[in-house]
Amino acid sequence: MKIFLLILIGLYSTSTFNLIKTTPPVDVYKLEGVWNLQYQLLYDNNQVSDTIFNTNGYRQVKMYSKGKVMWTRFDPADNNEWFGYGSYSIKGNMLEERLEYASGSMMKIVDTTQVFKFELVMDKNSYQQIAVDKKGQYSLSEHYIKIE
Questions:
Q1: pTM of the prediction?
Q2: Is the C or the N end of the chain the one with fewer CB within 10 Å?
Q3: 74, part of any domain
């Protein structure tokens, strides 16, 4: 009887534990692949203040492979070219991108920001990169879905 009761308690605690599991850590999923930007969120005091959807032909695609990142953006309303190439790494839930070269418009930003750091939230077919300022406040997040 005692053994049966112990087995029953063990099974109950195991099934209860499985119900409480949270989202797997970022390193369970792979960032490698091709990702399409779906929308962006703007923040004020760590609260979403606005959502920016891709409209009028705007498109941004990122590709991650073997520690390298490449991205391109097309905005019919902007005559500037936007693209970049470099390396990336994931440490815990932080994504770091270091651009090695980029379009002229982007190089103006790279000259002042050498490393782009983002909080990374992922699941199997989507991810978001959240820009965090020096005070730990969210400013902007980009939400991508995997297309390959």
A1: 0.78
A2: N
A3: yes
